[in-house]
Structure formats: structure tokens, C-alpha cells
Amino acid sequence: MPIRSIAILGTGLIGGSVGMALRAQKFPGPILGWDKDQEQLHIALQRGALTEIVDDPISAASAADLILLAGPVFTILDWMEQLAPILLPHQLITDVGSVKNPMLQRAQMLYAGAGRADFLGGHPMSGKEVFGVSYAEANLFHGSVWLFTPDKQAPQHPLAAEWRSWVERFGSRTLDLDAERHDELCAWVSHMPQMLATALSALYQDHFGEAEDMRAIGGRALREMTRLGASPYSMWRDIAHTNADAIGSAIAALEQRLAHLREHLKTPDLRDEFNRANAFRNSPPFK
Amino acid sequence: MPIRSIAILGTGLIGGSVGMALRAQKFPGPILGWDKDQEQLHIALQRGALTEIVDDPISAASAADLILLAGPVFTILDWMEQLAPILLPHQLITDVGSVKNPMLQRAQMLYAGAGRADFLGGHPMSGKEVFGVSYAEANLFHGSVWLFTPDKQAPQHPLAAEWRSWVERFGSRTLDLDAERHDELCAWVSHMPQMLATALSALYQDHFGEAEDMRAIGGRALREMTRLGASPYSMWRDIAHTNADAIGSAIAALEQRLAHLREHLKTPDLRDEFNRANAFRNSPPFK
Predict the structure, then answer these.
(1) pLDDT in tens for each of the 287 residues of chain A?
(2) Handedness of CA A126, A128, A132, A138 (dihedral sign)
(3) Residues 182-221 of A with CB under 8 A from B
(4) Angle between the A233-242 and A244-263 helix axes, to the nearest 10 degrees?
(5) Alpha-carbon distance A211 to A207, whole Å?
(6) Would A124 disulfide with which of A10, A120, A146, B44, CB 3.0-4.6 Å?
């Protein structure tokens, strides 16, 4: 049974890009869209991310074989709650949230079992420091990885393989991870770097304000290391809240590392630290 | 009296790029080169960064109107020491070192006064995480800023204005700074970000090693934030040593900022921190 129709709840940067990627890859059926922000929704339609707008999330989800939840973490959890009683076993829900263990926990309560729809956690590693469907693009996922965190205890839903093949047609590599490992890894390689860029940018703002000489000499390094400082709180609040332990551990480890380096600016330990850093960058995919 | 000839001591990434930029801008006179590494020197000649190779730094400097010192900080200080007794008042020495106060101190001892050559501290903000003349390019300085730290107490040397105009022809904006302010600013916007990228990369190396899942999901954020982790110790040892106090203060400030953010991952203080970071990125030149 193929995916005949898709509903996208949340038609912003990621949801909109998924719609555009589906249409670029000639998905033949309707793509129904809903967003609480009417402007985002209409821009999404104009940009070809949807084939039609639906008035409420329940109607959109009910009418589709595959339902994509594309919002902040707590919004996704809330949608999961609302949709569980009304969806049917032939339907598959998937999401694009940046943490995965809270969804898996919720899915095991709400979606496992006879007579119910199924849930497959997903996470495209394709963010930007901007948000909104105006920045959406059909090739956003090209060359990046799309993580899945299936419930290993449960059989695969009949539509899951087809959804994975659409994701691959977007140009993503797919990779399955245990949900807890996903959240731990993302704390280190995505969430902590975001918090670091935020802390660094905020520090510069407090230390220098609008000082002209600082802004005149800031070069590529400063620009790169603070790029994510432009990320809005609204995109990160739920992630920080639901993955706080793992993010906190990663930040604490970085603090210790910085203190060590600071205490050894004039000793041979600095060379050892540069050598370790060089080793990290001299292995794929960075080399 | 125009600059008829230029000597470049240290023909690596920066020295080589200066030679290539001079020739691209049709500098009409000889460009003499010396480097302790014969291979770098011959590649520099092959790539058109020099018009001739000279056997030792003293002969190269003696034969030129303008002498560019392009090496690590302690090497520059050492060259300043060696050249002081033999250079003449019509000659101007300048450099491209990443700290400036140690050079100014040395210059005030060695170069100020009647019968002596003059010294003008310079610093192009155009580094890379790689080194060597193979990476040199004529347009390396295009669009970036080239800082000068003249001794405000001394009159400007007759060749200084012409050298500044060559730098502007390379496509750089020039900016004069007090040498101490230079070192303080660079500690914050260049040296601390380098140490941060090194600490972060080294931390990843220790925490994950060659773990395949981490390397598979590392995206743009990770790549950007660790790019400078590839920088070699040899380029940074002298900077860390000579600017340790200012770099240490900036790192300590970042540690505190990270600790504060870590303690507030679930509180409204996180929003305030994102807002401050957004403000930093919403002003030029970052916006």
C-alpha cells in the first residue's frame, strides 16, 4: 500500500522544505498543509510546498496516509497526543524534531498496539540559523543525513520503507540510531555547539557592544564561530529543556577543557592539545 | 623617495601572498626573498611571489628599501634584533605578526632615534588554518582589514604612506590601532576563538575518537566550529606565549558565560542569552 497523500503539520523552514522536496521529486498525491501561522501557510502554498491548505491539524492528519510533524519538540508531543485517538492503523506519523527520546517514550504509550497508527521518529540534520518557510528550499536535505529512531521492539509499519525512500530521493543519507544515543550524540555535535555560539555571541555583545574597532577587525573566524548566535530562542527552548542533562554534560566538559588550555597557554600541554585537535580534523569527513 | 625594492623574510602563506599581491598590482622593482626552508623559498619563486632568492636574511634586508618580516612572533623579534645594527634610515621594516605590543616595545629600543631604520607594525587579518606558500594567493587580503600599530610618538617614515597604499591596492582596508588595544582586541576576536576551536576539537577527539555515528551526523555547525582545530601549533605557540594574559582573560570570561548558560538551560535566562546573541549578530558587519 503506497503513500497516496501526505499531511504536513507545521509548514515553516523544515516542513516547507519537505513539501518542496516531495514535489521536486514528483510525489504524485496531495500534500495537505496546516500551520498555526496563516501567513506561513499561505507562503508555503505559494512556494509550492503544498497542494492545499487544511483548516485544522486534525482534519489534515485524518485525510493523509503519512503525517509529518514539523514543529518544536513540545508542539510535536502535543500533536502526538491529539492525533493518537483519531488515527488508524494504516497511517504512519513521522516527525523532524531535534530530540528523539521524548517522542519515543510518548509513542510507546500512545501508538504501540493493535488498532492504532504507528510512529517513526525522524530528524534531518539540516537546520539553519534562520526560520520560516521563506528560507525553505527543495534541496535543503541534499548531502546531509536524516536520522531515524525506530522502536526496535516493534515491527516496521508498511509505509515506513516508502517514506525512507522519499527521504533518500531528497538527497539525504539515512541512518538509524537508538533514540537515547541520538539525543546524546546531538547534544554533543549540534546542541552544545549552538549553546556555545549563543554564549560566545552574547559575551561579545556584553564585552564590546557596538565598539567599532572590534567590528572592523572581526574576520572569518569570528563570523563562523558566532553564526549560530543568530538562531532564535523559539527554535531552541524545547530542545534545551528536553535534552538538558546531555547538553549540560557536554558544556561542562568544554568548560573544563577550556580551563585546562587556559592554564597551559605557555606550556607544552598546549602543543598536545593542538595535536589532538589536528587529529580530529585530519580524519574524515573533515579532512 | 619611492619603494624601489622589497625584501620578504619568511616566504610562507602570508609572506608569499604579499609577494604575489605586489606582483599582481604591478610592483615594478625586485622582490627579494629568504626563508629558512629552502623548499618554501623555491615554491615561492616558482609561484611568482619573488623575483629572486637571496642566500641569507641580512643580505636580503640590506638590499631593499622596505623589509617585510613574515614569521612567527619570536622569529620576527629575533630578525628585528639582528637587523637593527645594519639597516639605514632610508629603510623601513614592517611585519605581519599576530601580536603587536612586543614588536612595538622592541622597536622603541632598537629602531627609534637618529641614524636608524624605522619600524611600522602591521597585521593583516587574513589567516587560514593551513600554512605554507602552496596555499598563498594574490587575493588573500582582498576584503579584509590590515591593521597598523604605528608609534604615535614618532614621525611617520617617508616610505610608510607608500606601503599603506600598496596594502590598499591588495584590497585591504587599513586601520590604525594602539598596539596594546590591538593585542587586547585580537585576543578576543582571533586568539580566543582559535583556542576555543582547538579545545573543542580536542574534546571531540577524546570523547568520540573515530566513532562512526558521530562523524556521520556531524553537520555544518560542527564543521565550522572546529575548522580552526586544524591550525598547527607552530603558528600559535608564540601568540599564546606573548599574549597569554589577554587570551587567558577572554577564555575565562567564556568559561563563566558557558557555566551560566548551562545552569539556565531550563529557565528564562536562556531566552535573555539568546536575545543578547541575536543582538550581536543583528548589527553590521554580521547582519
Answers:
(1) 699 999 999 999 999 999 999 999 999 999 999 999 999 999 999 999 999 999 999 999 999 999 999 999 999 999 999 999 999 999 999 999 999 999 999 999 999 788 899 999 999 998 777 889 999 999 999 999 999 999 988 899 999 999 999 999 999 999 999 999 999 999 999 999 999 999 999 999 999 987 888 888 877 889 999 999 999 999 999 999 999 999 999 999 999 999 999 999 999 999 999 999 999 999 888 77
(2) negative
(3) 185-186, 188-190, 193-208, 210, 213-219, 221
(4) 100
(5) 9
(6) A146
CB atoms within 10 A of CB A149: 25
User: In the block, which residue shows the cell 496516509?
Assistant: A65
Cβ contact, residue pair B255, A259, below 8 Å: yes
> Any bridge partners for residue B69, and if so which?
B9, B95
Report how far residue B136's alpha carbon sits from residue B16's, in angstroms, rounded to the nearest whole number: 6
C-alpha cell at A219: 574576520
Task: Give the strands of the sheet with B145-148, arranged side by side.
Answer: B122-124, B145-148, B173-176
The beta-carbon neighbor of B251 closest among A206, A258, A282 is A258
Rounded-to-10 torsion of CA A259, A265, A267, A270 = 80
Q: Give this complex's ipTM.
A: 0.92
The rounded distance, in Å, linking the Cα atoms of A12 and A132 is 5
Q: List the one residue out of B65, B72, B81, B59 whose CA is nearest residue B160.
A: B65
Please choose, from the candidates B228, B248, B232, the residue with its C-alpha nearest in 3D space to the C-alpha of residue B240.
Answer: B248
pTM value?
Answer: 0.93
A181-281 topology per CATH: 6-phosphogluconate dehydrogenase C-terminal fold (1.10.3660)
**Distances in whole angstroms, Cα of residue B145 to Cα of each of A20, A126, A205, B125:** 41, 33, 21, 6
What are the φ and ψ backbone dihedral angles of B235, each rounded to 5 degrees? -80, -20
Displacement of CA B25 from its chain's centroid (Å): 21
A277–B199 CB contact, under 8 Å: yes
CATH entry 3.40.50.2300 includes domain B6-177: no
Report CA torsion sign: A139, A144, A150, A156: positive
- Whether residues B257 and A203 touch (CB distance < 8 A) is answered with yes
End-to-end CA distance of chain A: 43
Assess whether the previous peptide bond of A124 is cis (omega < 30° from 0): no
- Name the residue ranges covered by the structural domains of chain A: 6-177, 181-281
Between the CA of residue A96 and those of A158, A205, A273, B35, B147, what are the distances in Å?
Answer: 20, 32, 36, 55, 46
Q: Are B218 and A189 in contact (CB under 8 A)?
A: yes
Residue of A123, A198, A272, A283 to mutate when probing chain B, most B C-beta within 10 A = A198
C-alpha grid cell for residue A229? Answer: 548566535
Cβ neighbour number for residue A220 with a 10 Å cutoff: 18
